[in-house]
Description:
Elements: E1 2-8, H1 18-29, E2 34-40, H2 64-75, E3 78-83, H3 92-99, E4 109-115, H4 121-133, E5 137-145, H5 147-155, H6 169-192
Parallel strand pairs: 1-2, 1-3, 3-4, 4-5
Amino acid sequence: MTRIAVIxxxxxxxxxxxxxxxxxxxxxxxxxxxxxxxIDLRDFDxxxxxxxxxxxxxxxxxxxxxxxxxxxxDAADAFIVLTAEYNHSYPSVLKNAMDATFVEWxxxxxxxxxxxxxxxARAIEQLRLVAVEFEMAPLxxxxxxxxxxxxxxxxxxxxxxxxxxxxxxxxxDALVADLLWWSDALAAARNSA
Length: 193
Ligand SMILES: Cc1cc2nc3c(=O)[nH]c(=O)nc-3n(C[C@H](O)[C@H](O)[C@H](O)COP(=O)(O)O)c2cc1C
């Protein structure tokens, strides 16, 4: 069983993220051999990071929220990060949560679902760079929710209706297949190290 953590990185009221999150989780639940963990940053009241570098003091947690978050990252084999683009980057809530942890992410693959004027592409590119510092394998595959799909889903009464995202299913399935390949390869390598 591969445990894929789906990280919802926007927390503001009325966020769009709930739509793609519901679609991604439902599709993963239908995938054989996959266990899904939805990690919604709204559920973790992580304080503004101001501690010692977690890279030098692994798994020393300064709050219960960080400890709970760290345990969920530790338990995951692979990640799909859902990200909006805020001023051409990914949400600072996510960076703050990542900065509070370190080794929990090591040598695991990360894929992306983004949305916005350019499908969250700029935010995802920045996340890929950050993932390298976490000694992760950031993957090429991503789902970009561009304005043609985004506008319709945003205006809909129910943005969680999977029908809005149907045209993205092939891209999502390719992303998952690639993520599982990397997850298997890296889990085997981690276990033999
Ligand atoms: C602070 C802020 C900055 C934004 N900057 C961008 C941007 O740089 N590029 C973009 O495509 N959309 C931008 N948007 C629009 C977002 O794509 C849109 O609000 C989206 O719904 C955000 O995801 P969320 O609803 O899950 O928070 C921005 C929105 C906010 C709130």
